[in-house]
Amino acid sequence: MSTVCVQLSDCSFSSSEVRGHPRNTRMKFRKTKDEEPTAPGQVRIKKRSRVPGVMITQFVEEIPEGSSHPDFTRKPIALTLQEGKLAVFKAIVTGNPAPTVTWKRSNGEIDPELCQSVYDEHSHEHQLQMPAVGADLSDTYKCFAVNEFGQAVVTAALNVIEVGFKKSKAMKEAREEKQELAYTTLLKTRAERPKEEKKDGELDENFWELLLSADKKDYESICAQYGITDFRGMLTKLKVKKQERMEEQAQFISHLSNLKPIEVKSEGNAEFEFEMDLKDPNSRIFLYKDGVMVPFTSDLEEKHCLKQVGKKFVFSVKDLNPEDAGMYQVDVEGVNIFSTDFKVPAVDFVVKIQEVKAMEREDAVFECVVSQPLEKMSWFGKNVPLAQGEKYDIEVSEDKLIHRLVVKDCLQLDKGIYAAVAGIKSCNAWLVVEADNDPSAHGKKKARKTTTAGGSGVDLAKIAAEQNEKIQAERAEMMEKVKQAQEEAAKLKAEQEPLPEPAPQIPASKAEEPAAETAAPEKPTEQPAKPTKTIVKTTKKVVKKTVKKTVPKPAPAPAAEGVEAVPEPAESETIEVEEEVEVEEVVEEVVEEQAVEQVEEEEEEDGDGEKKKRVRTGPLVPETVIDPGVYFTCGLSDASAIMGQSAELVCKLSSEDCEGVWYKDGIELTSSEEGPTVIKEGAYHKLVIRECTEEDAGKYRFEADGRKTEAMLIVEDPPRISPEDLAEFSEPVIIKAGKSATFKINFVGREPIKVQWYNEDEEVLDDTNIKIEKSSTHSRLLLSKCPRKQTGEIKIKLKNEFGTAEAISKLIVIDKPTPPAGPVEIVEASANCVEIKWRGPKDDGGCTVDNYNLERQQLGRNTWKKIGLIPGVPHYKDTDVDHGRKYCYRIRAITAEGASEIMMTDDIQAGTKAYPGPPSQPKVVSAFKDCINLSWSPPTNTGGTNILGYNLEKRKRGSNLWGPVNPVNEPIKAKDAKEYGVKDVVEGIEYEFRVSAINVSGAGEASTPSEFVFARDPKKPPGKVSDLKVTDSTYTSLSLGWSKPKEEEGVQDEAKGYYVELRPAEETEWTRCNSNALITTSYTIIGLKSMAMYWVRVVASNEGGDGEPRDLDNYIIAMPPPVRPTFTDRKMKSFMVVRAGNSTRVNINFMASPMPNITWLKDGMPIPKRITISNAEGTSQILIPSSERTDTGIYSIILKNIVGQETFSTEIRVTDEPKPPGPIELEQNVPGTVTVSWTASPDEKRDDRLYYIVMKRDSVKRTWQTVAERVFNNNYTLINIMPGREYYFRVYAKNDMGQSDPSESRKWEVVRKKEKFTLNMPETKNCTFDAAPSFTVPLRTRSSPESYECYMSCAVSGNPAPYITWFRNNVSINTDTNYFISNTCGVCSLLILKVGPKDNGEYKIMAENQHGRAECTTKLTVRD
């Protein structure tokens, strides 16, 4: 984020002192706020608070230990309340000593009667309370916290919303006061503004600033605004300025793109944005408006705001008003980056847009009327800009006062808030889209409607006409005032000096010709005068015509006595003006400028030091006022007409007595019966063209009194369909399923015409059953074998370059209906009748259902009884039924096209019996060895009759048979259900019981069985458990163990279960940890709070109840048993090598209780803050995100708790592949050796494990050989250096991470001294190499498993080569294919692929030549 400079204090400098500043004007930056004085010896050190928005000033350089300056931990927030509500600002401050808190207002003092400062001791809040806020309390409030070491300040705004008449009155007064202040400021500013010297023909600097930041498509409009016609020269100079600007910007930014000029958003804010990549993120950014620095912040609630997202910068101006208009410029370190001109048209809404309620597929219209003609208005839909297109139509009336937005084909997605923005004014309204609940269109895409919804509900044309008349009246009144001021100025000038010769008048008819410049009088020599220039601005376009006009300048009047005369030449200047406005506005602006100049007074000092006033003596208005003559108040506008229809071109002159001439493409037009008709109605002139043809298109011009206006008439020929063809096409086509349908329509229009056919808004293309014929005058759609689902809307869409046309018809395909829809509703199913209802078919096939055909089948029979046809009402009552029988029905729907498939109902019983529901589960009241007492509740569903009694059943544990307790014919009476004793039980047997209710229909469903109960006398509660102890504990759990209580007959019986109860130390009530009794004598309590104290006890229980509890002797703390810290990972690394730049992670697992204090040290010192430590239960970890060489060291972890302490250390070495050594030097100190020396690698000082590798290569072997490794110095001596050979050497640096690139030496060679060589040849003797065979390697004894391979070999020598023969048991086997024999260079081998018992025996090899014979034997043993 770049640093933003928003305010300069105590400084004043010119733009030339700022490096690269593009302005030529001198700017002064005034101090916006006086600094508070400081006491002697006191300093003011600005500090940043952790709370955004808090400003801290420290009064001393060093704060003593234990003390602190004030700060806010909670700052007051901005409030927006209605008038009369309670407003409270809250703040919490810190500091030692405790700071004093005071409240102040930005404007005025705080009234103690309306505002009260309160301190809450419980919450430590300082509050400023305002019980009933009013408009006078709206302000920015400041909270000061001060002590002897500094102060902290924070601000908060209070906005009060006024209601009713009071609000509107206050707003009106505020606007009037603001306008008065603005006018006074304007006069003062202009009076004090220094006059700048501008050379003739020099362009405004703002013009170039705008061009440098504008898009190419905006060049023309900017040039028109500043009156530039020399586009070629402008582009040439712009190219040079762009190059200069880019060079300036390159100092601070590396990229600039996506420049978007300022524009008003729907929220009422103005924004402009661009993307910029700063070379230095701390570069200062400045914002200027009209050359004056504007302070801004990043707070979106402030007036001027800068928001930065990545490289995107967005400047916004909030709460727009007319004073916000001007040239905005953004500078970076004094270099201009972006400029944009913000214009605020003086326009407001006379009629605002209203809420619109529209149905789906209907068009919605928003309308409004503005106070001044406006070419274009911005429309927004849900904060998104809208543009002319297929979805939206944006329309403007001819007088530019009525603006419309048409939202076409409204859907549910289109509902929301729509806004109209005109300048800085805006209005918005809701679009409510109501769903079309037509049941006939359910599930189908709805057709687009031709109706529109919305509008203002008033006659906008009438209001616009009244507003136009009002504008014309204001202009006429203004013109009259200008004429009166002109006459008064002429009289005043006549009294002061004789009139100069008037400039020659230019006739209006020759306004287009260049006017002669009047000669200027000689300039006085005493002081050079500055020629003044009258600037004429145009605001309303009537006829684009360039006219040169001469405006005379008044001559200076003679100086009065005692007043120093200021000579000023009376010049006249010729200005090219594009006549696009009414003359009244031109004259008014000239008068205004000179009137303001008349007010200017400057004080000067003469030689004696006395002040004298210098008064401008020129006239207030120019002498010569040019009569504008006849001009256009409303010019021609481009028009479009459809071929065959009428077109009308209208314009309006300022005079009703002026005649004019119409031209088409330069040819004069006259009225005729067959041609166009010229009509004059007062000041209005009309040209009416009936039944337009293509020949009528062209450029039309109207001229009157030397003025002209032009417009284009475009004759369009869109596709058109005659009403007769359209009516015929709209008739529905009805066919039967499987038949063909044809749609044909004729049309006219300019080719090419695109023809598209749609069925239910889905485009239809040529297919097997679809044929489309197209021609220039008609199109036909043929649909063959149409199914029922093809029923729907048929639409044809015709489109060419001028428009579209649509025609809609309907295709109805009739077919048999679908089956009636279920489910069947049973209205009545009694003993006398069965009455049913159902729903009609989902698809009636395009015909109404005339009848239903019913059939009935009785359950258990195979035949269906035909009931016959009934009327087309889906309802039937069958009275021919038997009580208790079940029936099934088949139903068919019948239309004119036939009968549907059947729909079959479920079985329906006539006169069903209603049995009671099950009673509640029987409960055991008491149990004895000869009787068990039970109770139960009646069923909730009695079957509609009274309960006559109950049947009770019992079942032994382990049995599947239920036996009755009471006789079947003697049910238990209902009154006995409260308690019934079962006496037919056997002592010691376990039983369960169930009960069923009986009504007039019979016995119902049985209840849920009761719990098992023993038939025995009640037991005594058990005694206390013994040996209760804690077996294990953690921070969240506790494990207990105990022994069963002893049994004492008649005193305490056997325990059947146990309950564990828990009570925190701070509570008095016991809670049971288990809801069901435990069978085991151990239990683990979970969910405890770490290090909390608890009381624990165990209660034994049986059928006789709960016994007395057994408590632990002392309270228990939720923590594991104390354990000395130990490291659990046996494979912990004590040494690690890490590449520089990689992340390093050391994870240590340990076991300790309680949780130890974990301390990490690096080389005995605390580890740096950049290293992250993560601790969890049983593990600790350090993480170095990006390792550096400085991270090398010994890292130690210390685990310490109440039991003991444990330490572990690991060495981390951060390194990287070393850099190669320096240059190699070679030196021979001893003959036959060479000493290789090299410069140390740059990494040698930083890596104590770095060493060197020396390699050599000579001219004989030509391969590199390592001659020395792990060399820790910078030289090495090699021996055995042979003279006459060339040697090359390489030296590598190597460490734990890898090896560097080599450093290579130059060629090394020792010249060999040549000595005289003498060869003494001995006498030669005849030598022969013949020899007898002999075995150099004999055969060895072999032992091989059966079915394995066996390999025997030996080596034999002899010259000539001996002949080899193999024998087995003295039998030659050379030709036996079971053996593989080979002889290769004297190595003789025998291979047996698969050894068998037959291969046992003695093997012999015999070698013989001419000099002798040799033998060698071995023995082969085959193992089983």
Give a brief outline of the structure.
The chain is mainly beta.
Explain this structure.
By secondary structure, the chain is mainly beta. The strands form 24 sheets. Strands 1, 2, 4, 6, 9 and 10 form a six-stranded mixed β-sheet that branches. Strands 52, 53, 55, 56, 57 and 58 form a six-stranded antiparallel β-sheet that branches. The longest helix has 37 residues, at 460-496. It is extended.
Outline the secondary-structure elements.
Layout lengths: L44 E4 L6 E4 L9 E7 L4 E4 L4 E10 L3 E6 L10 E5 L4 E6 L8 E9 L2 E12 L2 H29 L12 H9 L5 H8 L4 H19 L3 E12 L5 E9 L6 E5 L2 E2 L10 E6 L2 E6 L8 E7 L2 E8 L6 E3 L4 E4 L3 E8 L7 E4 L2 E2 L6 E5 L5 E6 L8 E7 L2 E10 L17 E3 L5 H37 L49 E7 L19 E7 L4 H17 L1 E5 L5 E5 L16 E3 L4 E4 L4 E7 L7 E4 L2 E3 L7 E5 L2 E6 L8 E7 L2 E10 L6 H8 L2 E4 L4 E6 L7 E6 L2 E3 L5 E5 L3 E6 L8 E9 L2 E12 L5 E10 L4 E8 L9 E8 L6 E7 L3 E4 L7 E10 L2 E2 L3 E2 L3 E2 L13 E5 L4 E4 L13 E8 L6 E2 L15 E3 L7 E10 L2 E5 L6 E2 L11 E8 L4 E6 L13 E8 L6 E2 L9 E4 L7 E10 L2 E2 ...
Parallel strand pairs: 4-10, 20-27, 21-28, 34-41, 42-49, 77-84, 94-101
Antiparallel strand pairs: 1-2, 2-10, 3-5, 5-8, 6-9, 7-8, 9-10, 11-12, 12-16, 13-14, 13-17, 15-16, 17-18, 19-21, 21-25, 22-23, 22-26, 24-25, 26-27, 29-30, 31-32, 33-35, 35-39, 36-37, 36-40, 38-39, 40-41, 43-47, 44-45, 44-48, 46-47, 48-49, 50-51, 51-54, 52-53, 52-55, 55-56, 55-57, 55-58, 59-60, ...
